[in-house]
Amino acid sequence: MGLFGRDESLRRLADAAIAAQDGYGGLLVVRADPGLGLSALLDAHAEAMRSTGLPVRRIAVLPPHGTTVLSEGVPPQWPESGVVVIDDLHRADDATLLALHDLAEELSGRSLLVVAGRHRGAAPERFTHFERTAAVHDLLPLDDASVHALLTELTGAEPSESLRRLAAGAAGNPWLLAQLTAENRAQTVTAWATGLAGSDAALLRFAAILADRACVEDLAAAVGSPPAEVLAGAERLAALGLAEVTDGVVRLRHAVVRDDVAATSAALRTTAAKALISRNAPPEAVVEQLVHAPVDAWLAAWLGRHAEKLAADPTPGLVDLLERAVAHLVPGDPDLLPLRAALAEAQLWSGRLDAAEHTARTTLMARPDAPVRRRSRAVLVLLRIGAMDPGGAAKALEPEREHGELPPRLAVLDALARLLVGDLTGVEHALDIAEPHAADDPVVALYLLNIKAIGRFVFRDLTGALELLDQADALLEIAASDRGQRLMTRLLRAVVQDLRQERAALETAAQARPLARELGTGLLVWLHTITALALFNNGHWDESLAEIEAATALPDLHGFDGPLHAIAIAILVHRGDLPAARAHAELAKGAEPRGVALFYEQITAIGHAVLADAEGDSQRALEIVRTLANGDVGVHNGHAVSTIGARIVRIAVGSGDRELAERVVAHMQELVTGDSLGERGALTYCQGLLDSDVDLLLDAAQQFAENGSPVTAARAAQDAAKVLAASGRSADARAAYRTAIERFTALAAAGEIHRADAELRAFGVRRGATGPRRRPKHGWESLTAAEHRVAELVAQGLTNREVAERLIVSVRTVDSHVSKILAKLGYASRVEIVLGFERRS
């Protein structure tokens, strides 16, 4: 392998040799950490000097005592002119260093250059005085370009992304980089590192396996040495370039060394775990060691004491450890059933749902004692709740009721299941059981906060709901560990934020996405629904449709078919694609909501009403909105009227049912508390529709435009234009009309533009030649704002995943955008997007 990234160092050495030939000889010391290629550099320099005809002599440092030809104190018979190279000077004896020091001054008037290389951190105090008489050059790690070149030669091709990530752990060390593709890399790197460490090899190994937890005190407990000795050893490792010591924490400098040494030191994991236990380390830190250790009686007993807490937030390694421990224990072992219960919980919270159900049922078949029985029962209940099957959750609780009143943790699960079916009396009874225990059990307290938050926003106390969710977040931070409730808290926050018309709902949903994907079940579909609705409300319709597509591709929609298709209906109606809207309506008809989806039935109903209204079937639309206004749809739908009230009142007013419109507005006035911009704006809008009050309609249009509901802002401006036109104020009507059309155009809402044209034409108001044009179907002008932003980021060289992270949307959404961009522009590849964007700029 060639020498990479050392051109400047070779030039420095060559310049010193040239100066020596002009009578300015001297001593040049090259310092480097191990693995930086010091010997290779000196070899390359020697070869380059020979090629110019200069005499070159090598002086060997002989093991084991570091003697050289200078050790006897006899002046060497060196040539008058040329280069002398000494490698591994850090191994040389004191006599050699003294002789070189004495010769350094003599060299200044000769045509001879002595180049000596040493490891930078090896006993630096030995060289302090000596190097005052020498020129010093420090060899640094390779830069990125040199690393890339080395990897390319190493593999014979462009380095893969995985190899580049691995190379980052070598921190520019050429020797380590050269080992990255070796089959026995871990053994080779470990032998190299421990060989350098010498008597500190054990310390090096424990520092590797403890990783970021490798503080001096923990290392001392593991090694069995006093902290002062460990600190001295760590400083020796730092001097060798192997470690860094900061504020009492020892970290190996190269991730490759840390990982490879740890991989070959598995036998020390149990020792490290016991050392951490002796230091009262948290169980999570101990598990990091035990996941690599063989199962024995001590490990099983320790797990038995801590598994319940650990299982609430499991790592894949913990699940594997619990499985190995359960397999290791024999029937009748007192630790077996508690470990099985913990395994079921860990499988549940890591998304291995079928395995969790099997483990829980098998545990119950063994007739365990009450604590284990209740934990296993809770797993079965949570599985049913996660599947949006509250009836199944209640059924799973029935056997436990035979033992008397439900314990607090099962009582809160009972309360949640009953809430999902609208059984408020049952909720109150379950809460009466659980609440007295909340102060002593943070998990119970966490469930209670989330259940009460649901109640608050159902009854439209949105500020109160957020306050409870803030308390739940604080509890998760300091006292409770429950992955399901952590996800539930984020989902509820996103719902409340969207109800308050806050754009932060999209960010909150994005934060919840990784955990929802991991846990799966109905919570993932709920997240898709929340996100699709928030995207729709904020005018990001392409992203909303992509979110709906991602959800409907899942094997089970857990009852959310209706609301998901209803959101698509609304978007497609706005865009004028009634055939596609009808197709979604047919899919929505066969849906049977359950669990959380029951709270979204009104979304499904309003979707059908919007489609009927767009098709001119005002009677059908009116029938649907009457059922909504009467509270006959969904769970506690009467309190959801404020959310969909604007659409209900608009359809009622348009169909001539003023009594229905008045009733809905009166109901909204009772519900709206003032803490939601969206609900305040909706009430203003509805009152304006009811009273034909243009000032209220324009005020509502402005509120919606400023607070993230662009389609409602456009419709309010359109309705204001109709009122103005009906009163003969044609100029003002045209101005409001233009505002509405501009907003519809920004949304690509062709259907709304068409309907607005027809409605205003009846009053003699037309857009005219100077009015806004519809977006073309092809070319750059056909792109929506969201598509244009994606194209811009693609043109900057970002991958679809990077674009998704930048815009806080799913990768599937970006994939959909890129496909549409290519189709609209007539391009075949991303490269054409880059070139086309550059031509436009």
TrEMBL record:
Residues 776-841 form the HTH luxR-type domain. It comes from the Bacteria. One of its GO terms (biological process) is regulation of DNA-templated transcription. InterPro entries: P-loop_NTPase, Sig_transdc_resp-reg_C-effctor, Tscrpt_reg_LuxR_C, WalR-like, WH-like_DNA-bd_sf. Keywords: DNA-binding. Pfam families: GerE. PROSITE patterns: HTH_LUXR_2 (PS50043). GO terms for molecular function: DNA binding. This is Regulatory LuxR family protein. It comes from Saccharopolyspora antimicrobica.
